[in-house]
Design goal:
With 356 residues, the protein is of the alpha/beta class. The chain has 11 helices and 13 strands. Helix 4 runs parallel beside helix 5.
């Protein structure tokens, strides 16, 4: 008993978060979304180096492949290791056999004196760190890398930086990949981005977005629930909706099941086809994924009505561009045990840095 589907696309990932699992707890219990950023994610991304970035991406891509995800749109941040980060991620994913669209998320949250700021004035100047992030995006795209221009979020960027990102995106004929109104701290994002956003932008989260703006809306239900930021109500928007994980793995069938349960709780008249259409919308960014072949241990994996209520779907094999990159549930290009072991070594290094 088996069935076959096209490859899945994770429309918003943070591959660097793969090593976060098991990280030491912060010194306080975070009581708000901003505190979660300050206590966990802004500490973690500041501690990354290229070895950590490489093995985190390699393990994340391998796990994605094992869940039937053949393409990842990644949003990366490592403020103390910017240069070369995107090519490192792209290399790690290519070695696994997973396609990636990469960007560096620029931010002004570190001043030129390396002071961490919880909020940035829209009137301030672009910091050295943000300028280096824009250069990293520019260099990666200029070298032929597949990607976008990344921005962390409007509330950690000056208007000058937001405009710089928009102009760089136009230069390369790509969109901007940005967190938008994820928490109440960024509730002014709509007003600040309204005249900048274009149809090819990726607007991630949109939970507290107060207006319609151009771009794709990337819904991340599990992350939104985990951070207690609220429900984005994606069906109320005019935007084309995609589905992401915000760094919590890349099992898109699992994310879709959760997205459907959350949608159904919001609107009992909805059905699974709506959420599975969000998965299909991601082919706008990776049309070749439609021709990938993912074989499951279940007869009806290609049916939204079956998949929505069937847990523990197992991927047996994956074919990308005619090559079998997963066979009998294991990757063929890389040694799964080695990837896990090397990634664990880097996780230990990372967690020790966080302890100190």
């Amino acid at each position: 008993m088996s069935s076959q589907t096209a490859g899945q696309v994770c429309a918003h990932h943070h591959l660097y978060s793969t090593l976060a699992r098991g990280m030491p707890a912060p010194n306080r219990t975070s009581g708000s979304f901003l505190e979660i950023l300050q206590d966990i994610w802004w500490r973690l991304d500041a501690a990354l180096d290229l070895d950590m970035i490489y093995w985190s991406a390699k393990l994340g891509a391998t796990e994605a492949l094992m869940s039937g995800t053949t393409c990842i749109i990644d949003h990366h941040e490592s403020p103390n290791c910017i240069e070369g980060s995107l090519s490192t991620i792209a290399r790690a994913c290519a070695e696994v056999g997973v396609r990636v669209n990469a960007c560096y998320g620029v931010t002004d949250r570190f001043s030129n004196q390396n002071q961490l700021l919880s909020k940035v004035s829209p009137l301030s100047k672009t910091t050295d760190g943000a300028a280096r992030g824009l250069t990293e995006c520019d260099d990666f795209l200029s070298s032929g890398g597949r990607g976008m221009v990344g921005v962390h979020a409007a509330f950690t960027c000056s208007d000058e930086t937001l405009h710089g990102a928009a102009e760089l995106a136009k230069k390369h004929s790509v969109g901007v990949h940005i967190h938008v109104a994820e928490g109440p701290e960024d509730s002014q994002a709509g007003a600040r981005l309204e005249k900048l956003a274009q149809d090819d932008w990726l607007l991630v989260h949109g939970v507290h977005l107060d207006r319609d703006i151009k771009g794709y809306l990337v819904h991340n239900p599990r992350s939104n629930m985990n951070n207690a930021v609220g429900y984005a109500k994606p069906t109320r928007r005019n935007n084309r909706v995609l589905l992401g994980t915000d760094g919590i793995g890349a099992d898109m069938n699992d994310e879709a099941r959760l997205a459907y349960a959350r949608l159904r709780e919001f609107d009992v008249t909805e059905n699974p086809a709506t959420v599975w259409s969000w998965l299909a919308n991601s082919y706008d960014f990776f049309p070749e994924a439609r021709h990938d072949k993912v074989t499951y241990n279940y007869d009806f994996a290609d049916s939204p009505w079956h998949s929505a209520f069937t847990t523990n779907l197992q991927v047996l094999s994956v074919e990308v561009d005619g090559e079998k990159v997963l066979q009998d549930g294991r990757p063929t290009r890389v040694d799964l045990d080695e990837v896990r072991s090397k990634a664990n070594e880097q996780a230990v290094r990372l967690h020790k840095r966080l302890e100190n």
